[in-house]
Hints:
By secondary structure, this protein is α+β, with helices and mostly antiparallel strands. Helix content is 55%, strand content 13%. The model has no long low-confidence stretch (mean pLDDT 78).
Amino acid sequence: MRRFKTHGEGISVACPRPSNSLKAYKILLTKDPYNELATEYLAEREREKEQRVTRQLQVKGY
């Protein structure tokens, strides 16, 4: 958590990112371990990007 000085009384506290707090809430609620995105998922996204760029180049005549 970050603390912010305010012009009035006290200190304001904010959560860094809502998505992080939602992940933490889900982990605590379901008691499942946190799983980062798998390498297969990232590799698939890279392949899709390569295919998209290849199609775009073919449409342009390269």
